[in-house]
Write a structure and sequence with these properties.
heterodimer; A: 16 helices; 0% strand; B: alpha+beta; six-stranded mixed β-sheet; elongated
């Protein structure tokens, strides 16, 4: 059932990957279609009633079977032996350890990617330099590489037979099968989220406000914290939210580097799989339900943030439909 | 504060935005940089502000090397074309920004800052907008807030990039007069960039006409209008009639026919004759060295504007002349033309 959370986060991932500007274009053709139907003296709806009904019914059925039903099953299974069993499953030391590890890894990778993402977006949006296109492509790399490969890369680097493995072993530094390795793999996989959320926003805002701040005597740091950051805060939160969802739900890359040491290097998605394979359905689905809840919360907050982002566009003079 | 710019060169790739520019601005002046887009005027302004760096040359304020300082240390007030107000701050906070980011040692206390901002908002007559956000203001209001924000740091120099460019005609006119009045009140050395000749001539003490990264002429509005130094300036400022002529041995010919005017020392060869629309005397046929047929007449106010097809030259040369309305012209009428004041530049 770890797939559950992965599907949710992959979907949100795609949302982030599509530049927000693209989505605002979609209403335009329909407006054109509406204008055409008006010319034909029809009402605002182009399709006849039955067709409309069938289309909507199809969409709802599809969503119910493939999205709502699995989600319901997760919770149904989690609570199948009662509320007591559910909470005692979550209170297991193994479960607690997995929750702790997931939170820790998410905290590390999100905060580092926050910094990296802002720096990368800043560089790309506000400066011109050779190799800029290459850098943009590079930022997208983690999205186009299979997570398993992403994990394997770190095994090749830090593993016992890897490039730095022997040196690390000699100095008693544990990267693989320990928190650093899991964090590294997660950072790699979730790197694009923050940068991707910020680049279009910062490009659209341009550099004029920063220039104004500097000409008014502000230092670089003052300019960043008083002008740049407040202007990108909603976009930044949006990126962080998606980054966090993926960091907590990541399975493939983490599975390769974790080593599945019980109570030590199992994150929540890994534990869900292990418990499921051991027929501990209640425990497995209890933890899966936490991940599902995370996905739901992410969706809600994302919707709110998107609204704030759109509102944030109104004061600017430039339209975003480019 | 005087500003001196010497031998400034700035290239964007192969394109020379500024090509050896020299300029001296006197204390308390209100100077206009006038030119078509791409003439390098905004680049020059940004280099003076420290927002761009020249590839070669010097910039000094009161004899002190300005290039040794970054934009934040130059104490230059810059008003951006699109105002660049901080969108997440109120008008009050926008104006206060320059005071709040000062180093702690010289930063004023909150009460002083508030009093100063109030004073500036009074100066631009917008104190009633203090708690609004930039998105809630009109273009003219934003422009004035941008100016108040720039003035908050008590700049040694005020630079304005196309200050009225994004405003509608009526607001633009009002703001022009207002800027002049403001300048005579605070008397800070100011440079503004514009592509609108009327704006430059009306507002500035001196006008710098630029084209293709070079300065074509520097002079008072009267000088650049009445005595343009180059063909470009004559063509760019004011409406001109331009005729291709040949100069040889002190005589000027148009399509082989002599014009009864002196060459005024113009070098021999293919040249261009520039005449202001109102400097072409128009009279009955045979009254001047040029002749033409009136195609069309529009009368408004004190003048009538006649479109005249010149005789000869295959009837392809059509010029527009502004004539006083003492004698109403008729379409189809043959008229004699004689340049009263003119200039000849090598083609």
């Amino acid at each position: 059932m770890s797939m559950q959370s992965n599907v949710a986060s992959a979907a949100t991932g795609l949302r982030a990957y599509a530049p927000t500007a693209d989505l605002t274009i979609s209403p335009l053709p329909s407006r054109g279609a509406r204008a055409r139907s008006l010319a034909g003296t029809e009402n605002l709806h182009t399709e006849p009633g039955p067709v409309r009904f069938i289309i909507i019914a199809l969409a709802i059925t599809f969503l119910s079977v493939f999205v709502v039903l699995p989600l319901v099953v997760v919770f149904a299974q989690a609570f199948s032996k009662g509320v007591g069993a559910y909470f005692s499953a979550l209170a297991e030391p193994e479960a607690l350890s997995a929750i702790r590890l997931t939170l820790l890894v998410a905290a590390i990778s999100v905060s580092l990617n926050l910094v990296f993402g802002v720096i990368a977006a800043w560089a790309i949006a506000k400066f011109d330099f050779t190799g800029k296109t290459f850098l943009i492509t590079l930022i997208d790399l983690p999205f186009s590489v299979s997570p398993v490969i992403s994990g394997l890369v770190f095994v090749l680097l830090f593993g016992a037979q890897g490039y730095w493995g022997p040196w690390l072993q000699a100095h008693d530094v544990h990267v693989l099968f320990a928190v650093p390795g899991i964090a590294l793999a997660t950072i790699f996989v979730t790197f694009p989220f923050v940068a991707r959320a910020l680049i279009p926003l910062m490009q659209e805002q341009g550099t004029q406000e920063e220039e104004a701040a500097i000409s008014l005597g502000a230092s670089g740091l003052q300019t960043f914290f008083r002008v740049t950051l407040p202007n990108i805060k909603w976009g930044l939160l949006y990126g962080v939210l998606l980054c966090n969802a993926r960091a907590m739900g990541e399975f493939g890359a983490v599975s390769v580097v974790s080593g599945h040491i019980r109570g030590e290097t199992n994150t929540m998605p890994l534990l869900v799989e292990i418990l499921y394979n051991e027929y501990q359905f209640v425990s497995s689905f209890a933890i899966a339900s936490l991940l599902a809840m995370l996905a739901l919360i992410t969706l809600i907050v994302k919707t709110v943030l998107e609204r704030r982002l759109d509102e944030g566009q109104i004061p600017s003079d430039h339209s975003r439909d480019n | 504060m005087t500003i001196e710019v010497k031998n400034i060169v700035k290239k964007f790739g192969a394109f020379a935005a500024l090509d050896n520019v020299d300029l001296k601005v006197d204390k308390g002046e209100l100077l206009a940089l006038l030119g078509p887009s791409g003439s390098g005027k905004t680049t020059l302004l940004r280099i003076i502000a420290g927002l761009d760096w020249p590839d070669a040359g010097e910039v000094s304020f009161d004899g002190e090397n300005a290039l040794a300082r970054g934009a934040s240390e130059r104490h230059v007030g810059f008003v951006f074309q699109h105002y660049a107000l901080f969108r997440h701050m109120t008008v009050f906070e926008n104006v206060a920004f320059g005071l709040r980011v000062q180093p702690r040692a010289i930063r004023k206390d909150e009460a002083t800052i508030r009093a100063r901002v109030k004073e500036l908002l009074d100066l631009v007559q917008l104190d009633w907008l203090a708690s609004r956000y930039p998105s809630q203001l009109s273009g003219g209001q934003r422009q004035r807030i941008a100016l108040a924000r720039a003035l908050a740091i008590e700049p040694r120099i005020l630079l304005l990039d196309e200050p009225f460019g994004a405003l509608d005609a009526k607001v633009r006119k009002e703001l022009r007069q207002w800027l002049r009045a403001l300048h005579s009140e605070i008397h800070v050395t100011s440079i503004f960039v514009t592509h609108d000749q009327e704006e430059a001539l009306e507002v500035a003490n001196r006008v710098v006409v630029m084209d293709k990264g070079r300065i074509e002429q520097i002079g008072t509005p009267g000088e650049v209008y009445d005595s343009p130094a180059t063909a470009f300036v004559h063509g760019f400022i004011g409406e001109s009639i331009v005729l291709p002529v040949d100069v040889s041995g002190g005589s000027v010919r148009l399509d082989g026919r002599p014009l009864n005017i002196a060459a005024n020392g113009a070098a021999s060869g293919a040249s261009k004759l520039f005449v202001r629309r109102h400097d072409m005397a128009i009279g009955p046929a045979g009254s001047g060295s040029l002749e033409g047929a009136v195609r069309h007449v529009r009368s408004f106010g004190p003048i009538q504007r006649a479109e005249v097809t010149l005789s000869g030259g295959e009837g392809k040369t059509i010029i527009e002349i502004d004539a006083p309305r003492d004698r109403e012209l008729q379409a189809g009428e043959i008229v004699g033309l004689q340049p009263r004041r003119y200039r000849i530049f090598a083609a």
